[in-house]
Please model this.
Amino acid sequence: MTFVVLENCIRCKYTDCVDVCPVDCFHEGPNFLVIDPDECIDCTLCEPECPAEAIVSEDDLPVQQQHMLELNEELSQIWPVITTRKDPPADATEWDGVPDKLKYLER
Model:
């Protein structure tokens, strides 16, 4: 099992989760983070750290977010690992909770 970064991370990209990950399974894109499912050890540490509540266990993945598991897997293979926390985008709070953000994903 793995944890999955959901759509709500897009354009929020808080990196609080990166600091607590013991295996460096987070990868960073221009405006989104993903989890490498092959590296995730299901430790649960990242989920409560996300201010946007955009990380869930694969077992708790909402039906409307099922596509995010494949997207995390795909992008984790091409984006670089992120191991240190960064400041969120200046407008992150404005984007938190905005629905249907997949169209804003920058690859």
